[in-house]
Amino acid sequence: MSDWGPVFVAVVLFVVLTPGLLFKIPGRNRLVEFGSFQTGAAPIVVHSILYFALISIFLLAVGVHVYIG
């Protein structure tokens, strides 16, 4: 049996934290903009830091495991 937990967590976080897809921090006019489909250097850096922090928490601290098969 293989552990698919890290794969699922990484894919879901990548999709959710894509800058401009669902939300963007920092926005052009506000701190948070929703559904703008635009990005820049600052939002990419912020979302990368958030991705690293959340994936570290879910995989190392919480230890998400999904066994299929």
Describe the fold and architecture.
The protein has 69 residues and is mainly alpha-helical. Helix content is 49%, strand content 12%. It contains 2 helices and 4 strands; from the N terminus they run E-H-E-E-H-E. The chain has helices at 5-16, 41-62; strands at 2-3, 23-24, 33-34, 67-68. It has a two-stranded antiparallel ribbon. Strands 2-3 form a two-stranded antiparallel sheet. Strand 2 and strand 3 form a beta hairpin. Helix 1 (5-16) runs antiparallel to helix 2 (41-62). The longest helix has 22 residues, at 41-62. The protein is elongated. The model has no long low-confidence stretch (mean pLDDT 91).
Structure keywords:
two-stranded antiparallel sheet; elongated; single chain; mainly alpha; 12% strand; 69 residues
Question: What's the short version?
Answer:
This protein is mainly α and 69 residues long.
- In the sheet with the most strands, the strands line up as 1-4
First and last CA, distance: 6 Å
* Total beta strand runs: 4
Mean pLDDT: 91
- Please summarize the sheet with the most strands: 2 strands, antiparallel
- How does the helix and strand content classify structurally? mainly alpha
Count helical runs.
Answer: 2
Order of helices and strands: EHEEHE
Helical residue percent? 40-55%
Shape: elongated
Topology:
Elements: E1 2-3, H1 5-16, E2 23-24, E3 33-34, H2 41-62, E4 67-68
Helix pairs in contact: 1-2
